[in-house]
Every structure is written in C-alpha cells, then in structure tokens.
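Sanity check

After download, print the first record. It should look like this:
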Amino acid sequence: GNIVFNIGYNKVDPIYQRNRTWARSINGSGNSGFFPDGHYQGTNPDGSPYDLIGNGHGGFSTAPAAFDTTQIPNLYSGFTRKTFNTSAHYELNPNSDAFPVELVGQVMYTDRSSFGLANPDPQVGVANTPTGVAGGTNENIAGLPGPLTPDSPGGNSASFPFRSTVIGNRTFITDVQTYRTVVGLQGKLFQKFDWEIKLNHGQSDGAAHTNNLVDQPNLATFTGDINNLTVADQTLLRDNTTDVLKTTQDEYSTQISGPVFTLPAGDLTFAVGGDIRREFLTDTPDFANATGRTDQGGTPTRGQYNLKEGFVEFNVPVLKDQFMAKELSFDGAARYSHYSNFGNATTWKGTLNWAPVGDIRIRSTLSVSFRAPTIQELFLANTTTFNGVNDPCDTNPSSNSLLTTSSGAKQATVRANCIAALNAVGINPATFEPSLTGSQQIAGVSGGNPNLTPEKTHDFTIGGVLTPSFVPNLQMTLDYWRIKLSNQIIQIPDAQTALNLCYASTGLSDPSCATLGPRTPVPISNQPTAGGISTQSLTSLNSGTISTDCIDFGLDYSFPLSDVGLPNAGKL
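Expected structure tokens:
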C-alpha cells in the first residue's frame, strides 16, 4: 500500500481602492450622496426646500462636504487559505489473479478566510436634527423661516443622509471550512473488468461576519446628536452580524467496465454503473438580518433533494483496415436520472468516428443533455446587496444618465417614462438629481429559487481531421458545431442593465421593469434623495434560450529546430 499527502498555506493581502490612482473614478466619482457629518434636506413650513451640510459640531453650512467613497474599500479582498489533501491505497489480496481488491481512500480539507472592507453604512436618519448646540450660528441656518426642530408645529421637517465614521467602516469576514472524504473498494475481475464501489461525503460550513451595520429600528427612534455619538449611542446603533451557511453531499456510486467480446475490428467495450446522491443546504442569517434590524435582509432557508441514476456506455469498432474504412467506430452513452424535485430525465450521446484513409478522419456527435440547478441556486437565503448605478432619469449632464446621453425617439421615451414614474411619487422630473454625481445604490435582493427546473440542450457537431502523409507533422482540423439550450437558468440582469432596458421601453413595458421596486417618495437608507429606485430582485429564474453555431478551424505544424540552422536542437 501507499499514502501520499500535501499541505498548503496561501496568504494574499487586500488591495485598497486608495492604492490605485485609476480606481478613484470607479462608479463615476469619489463623492457620495451621504455625508460624514450629515446632509440635511427638507421642506420649510412655507413649502420652500432647504439643503444644508452638517459641520460635525451641530452647525450647518451650504458648502458641500461629500464623503469620499474611494479611500476605504478594497478592490481585491485579502484571504488566507490552508489546505490538506491525502490519498491512500492498500492491496487486500495482492496474490490474487482472478479477483484482486484494493482499499482506497481520499481526504481533502480547505480552510479559507477572506476579508473585505467597505465605507460606513449609508443611512437616512429620521428628523433627528440637533438644535441649540454650540456652533449653530444664524449664518449656518440663514434663509430658514423657522427653527431646525424635528416634527414641531411651524418648524422644519428634515431627512438626514449620513455615513457615520464613529459607528465605523463595514468589515466583511468570511470563514469557510470544506472537506471531502472518499472510501471504497476497487479491483479487477477475471483480469478483464475494472470495477469500483465508493462512498463519498462532502461538507462545507461557512460563516459570514459583517461588522458595523446600522440598527434600523433604533435609528428610527434615535433622538440624540448623530454627529456626537456617545459610547451608549454607538452600542444602540451598531449591529455586528453572523450568517451561517452549511451544505452537505452524500453519494454512493458503483461501476464496472471492460471488453464484452471481440469483433473483427477489435474489442467491443462497455461501462455500466449508477449512483445515489443526496444534497442538503441550510442557510441561517443572523437574527438582526432576518428580523429587519439591518439593511442586509435575509430569510432562513433549508432544502434538499435526492438523485438516483444509472448509465451505460459502449464503444463498437465496426471496421478496421478495410477499403474506404481505415477505421470506423461508434460510441454511445445513455443516462437515466430520477430527481426527487424534478422527476425523470434521460440523456444520451452518439459519436461516429470514420477514417476512410490514413490521412483523413471524419467525426460527428449528436447529444441531448441537461443541467440541474445547484443546491445553492435552489435554496440559498435571500440577502440584500447594494449595486452602484446611474439613475436613467437624472437631469445632471455630468451623470451620463440614459436621459442625458440618449437622443431622438429613445430620449423621448426615456423622458416620458421618467415623468410618469417621478410624478407618481411627487418628485419634479425637471430637476431630479439623485446625488451630486448621479451615482447611487440600489438595494438588490438575491437568493435561491426553489421553483427552478433543469436546463436542456441539443448539441450537434461534425468535422474532420487532415494529416497528409506527404507533409509530415501537419494536422488541420475543421469542425462545425451547433448548440441549442432551452429553459436557461439566468439571474435577473444587473441593476444598471435592468434600469436602462426598462426606461428605454415604451410605457415601462420591458420584462426587466418587473424586477425593479417602486421609486421612493422619501429618502431611504440606500437612497439619499427622494425619488430613487427602492429595490431590485436578483433571484434566478428559467427564462430564454440560447441558439449558437460556429465553424472552428485549426492548424498544427511541428518541425525540428535543426531545420532552421540550430544543430542538436529538438522539435518545436
């Protein structure tokens, strides 16, 4: 017997956005609609708007001091990975010729930890403007017909977009331990047939730790000074969360292969086998995420499915060294599968290989196959992601929005859609600017979809290989292939694509519009300005087809380097 093993350690430091000059313009600008010391926007009792910037000490001014989003985040996450792998073989009866049996085993283990860093959590406070504090001069609040007091008769109502540097930068630490064990028997029967029986168990345990999120219910009722948080305030407003994901797979497989009998052109060989597999997933978001205390979201999910399948494969040598048949053979394979959640499926493949002469070979394959959705695509819990976009309705020319960059009939369609969508929530379409630069974030909801069904494909290829004997070492290939895929599993288009497709369609009729949540009449946590898109659904679904074909040409030629004046050289 023998055993072989290896261990590995790999550490990569993160690369931060501030470390690369070109990265300071990612997503359009280094400026944010959220401000480190608060950005006070609202409506005076007389209906006039006001827009003030906090100075960090309770005072206000009209000079922008936007948060620079390019200093903190990492472009490339840092990670540490530790691995251990081993494989062992032991001959149980080495002296047997008719029925030698070997015990085999494998263990593979990986421990990976990754680290990510992001700007402080962007939020919108609720009418919690501090009043009567040092630094609040008449000049700071000039033009306001009443005091900056929250929800008071005759006062000014205010929203409050901010990124609290006191609560801290968001950190994302993901720890994943994955292992796979295999144990089984394999051997040879009557010195002809190879066989094996194996048991396979794999498991992955992951924990995603996110620190310094803002507690939404406590923020909604917070009445203190957001610019001067006490230790107690920080404890009240800060959430650190841990989401846990576990997946397991158990598989029992067996197969046997070898020659059945001898034909004039060679041995007819076969392989037959089957397996039983069970996959299970449980996704448990942190209690704060699952109950809406953070803007991350999450719904606990669990799911499983079982699979039973069998297969048969064979190779039939039909002719050999005959007239117009230097070689003629046929390969065939078929597989029957029963999924507990999808039902039955049969897939097959047939390949013809014909060499009329030694210089020419023609080959063709016809097959039907499918891909079942993965356990993650089916049952992963819904989580919230934030995707940077340019609002298609932004009127600021520097935003490069769809409205400002399109022309003609397309621009007219975009403008009509924007007017309808913004008017519906009481926002003036002519002056709508979602941020200083137009760049903003949409809260996307992504996760599994237990209603997914398998993808199906029909494939056809035909081609030839030319190896002319009069030009040694030359090989030319020409192949045509065609693939038709139906019931495709896709994720909803990214937020920017969905927005542009939706607002460029007549009457907001494009299917991508259904993935977008309504515009918000007031600022919310991910939208510093009223009128922004609230959410987008990013879950997977079965939609669309792919039909593609192509002709591939290949040329391969080798020759000794000595032919070009390099003595004692080998082949190129």
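If your output differs, re-run the checksum step. Summary of this record's structure: DSSP finds seven helices and 26 strands in the chain.
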